[in-house]
Request: fold
Amino acid sequence: MKSRILLAVSLLSILCGATLLLQPGSKVSADEGLKARVFEMRTYTTAEGRLDVLHKRFREHTNYLFVKHGMTLIGYWTPTDKPETLVYILAYPNMEARKKSWKGFMGDEAWKKAWADSKKDGPVVTKVEAQFLNPTDYSPIR
Reply:
């Protein structure tokens, strides 16, 4: 019971703080927005007919490993006009944290096995694009 009360009080405190920050006229500057988390939008183009293999790899392995290595999962999308494409966004506290997360992820034996297993019938991803995004001072997500 005490842990539930503590959790409720903690959540209420977070919500109150967020409400104060998001009030109209709040003095959050553009510089503060730029000091917020770093977002990375990654676009993977797959070999023809291999998008389902990529989805399976993310569903069963990649997402878990991203979280294990300190990455925050924001969302995943498939563009309506590019059927062999996956777009996703990750967040990191800063660029140094991103570097550390990816180093750990790429060196993880579970990742190496999942990657190799998914390629046994041919290449999955043919092109990777990455773009870094800074939230604006008026962005609801930072």
About this structure: The two ends are 33 Å apart (CA to CA). The chain has one domain: 33-133. The chain has five helices and four strands.
